Task: structure prediction
Amino acid sequence: METPATMPAEAEIRGDAGFNIAERFLDRNDGDRTALITNAGPVTYAELQALANRAGNALRALGVRQGDRVLLALGDGPEFVATWYGAQKIGAVTAEVYTYLQAKDYRYFIDYARPDVIVTDSAALGKLRTAGARNLVVAGVPRRDLLDGERHFDTLMAAQPDELPAVPVASDDVALWKFTTGSTGAPRACVLPARSPHLSFEWYARGVLDIRPDDLVLPVPKLFFGYSRDLTALFPFGVGAAGIVFPERSRADKLFELIAEHRPTILVNVPTMMSAMIAHPDAAKQDLSSLRICTSAGEPLPPELHRRWTDTFGVEVLDGIGSSEVYHIYLSNRPGRVRPGSLGEVVPGYRARVVDADGLPLADGETGRLEITGETAALEYWQEPEKSRETFVAEHTVRSGDLFTRDADGYFHYRGRADDMLKVGGVWVAPVEIENCLLTHPAVAECAVAGYQVDGLVRPRAYVVPKAEVTAAELQDYVRANLAPQKYPREVRFVDRLPHTASGKVDRRALEPWQEAGGPPQLAARLTPVAALARNAQLVV
Result:
C-alpha cells in the first residue's frame, strides 16, 4: 500500500523528473483497499484503477492527446473520478463544471475552454445539447437515447483495455484548470501546473489535517468544486484512504443518513450546510462522534454559527480559505488550536501577508488585500493577460481580492471583498447578473441586487421597482429558471424608487443604509413578506 513515507519528496515534485498525478495518487495503492464508497457499494483501488485506465484509453481513441482539454459535466460517482484520473494519466488537462447550469452557461464554457471531449450524464445532457456541444461522451443514459455523434460511456469503456502506462509530466506542465468567477461575473480558468495537487497534499492534507490511511471522507459540495474533489478523491488516495461519493444534491437529512451508515471521519463542509444541519428538527438526535474533523471553506464561517455547531454536534471545525488561483486551502485553523471567527494560520509551505493598494505590507490589525506566495499558484488566467498581471504579481504569488487583517498571534481574519461580488453557498455570485435577468421580466421596471446576512451568511436581496402586478415568488422562480440555482434572490423587496448617481446609475453605496434597515424606512410597511429560509434546506454548489 502507498504510504505517506513513500510519496514523492517535495524536491522530486519541484524537479523536472517526470511524474503523473494518476500514478502517484491512484496506481500506487493496495488494490484490495476501498477507494470509494458509492450508492452501489464500495469500489476498490484495483477496480477504480481499471476503470480509469479504460477511460484514459477511450479518450485516446477519441483523439485526445497530452495537453488537450477534457471537460467534465458529470454527477458524483465512480465515472467522474475514473474519467478525471484517466485523463490525467494520458497527460490531458482536466476541467469541471456544475451539472445544473443553464444552456447559455454551457455555451460560454464550450466557447471559452474549447474542450476536445466533454464527458457528461443525464443531468446536464439536455442543456449541453441546447448549447450546441459536440464530442459528447454520455454516462447513465441508455444507448438508444443518444443522438448521432454522441458516444455511450459504458460501451466505449467496455471496448478498451484496462492497462495504461502513465505519461510522464513535468512539474510545471499544465495539468488542470479550475474555474473561478471574476469581478465581472464571467468564469475564468486558472491554469494550474502538475506540482499543485502534489504540494497541496503535502502541505495541507498532511501538514494540517494529518490525513490517515483509516480516514473516510464525506463531502458536502459536489466534486466539480475543487475543494471537495481534492478532499474526497485525491488527498485520501495519497495515504490509501477512501471517500464517499453520491449523485444526489446535498441535504441535511441525506448527510445524516450517510454519516449514520458509513461513519466517516472527515466531513468536508460549508457554512450554509452547517446552518441547515443545525436547524434540522432531528439535529439533537444525530450521532456525529465518528467525525474527528469537520472542514469549512467556501464562505466565511460566522463565530455564532461556529459556536452553535460545536454545541450541537461536538465536532471540531477547521475553518480555512483557499482559491482556484492558489489551488486549494492556504490559510486554516489547526486541530487543537482553533480560533472561532478567524481563518486560522498560514498553511505550511505558503507565505501570507496583508498589503495596501501599492503592494506594501501592512501592520498587524490593519485591513488590506491578502497576498499569498506558494508553488501551488496558477500560472495564469486563460487568455486574460491583463487580469493575470494584476493577480499573479510575482512568481508563485497571488494578490487576491479578499480583504484581511492579521493579528499579533498570526491568525488571519476575513474582512470582505474588495469588489461587490457576493459569495453564496460557497460560490461567487455577480449581482449584475441577477439584475440583468430580473430586468428581462415584463413586470420589472428597475432593480438592484445587494447582499444581506442571515446568521452571518450572505444572501442576495433584490430591490424591485415593478411596472405590473407580480409576486416575490414569481420573480424568484423566474431567476431560478434562467440562472444557476444558487443565484436566485432569497428576498425580493418592492420599492417605488432606487437611489441613483448623477450619471443615472444605481448608487450601490446608497443601498448600504437600506441593507442595514431592511429597506428604505418610508417604504418599510409596503415591503413584500419574505418566505422562510428554512424551506430551502437544499445546498447547491
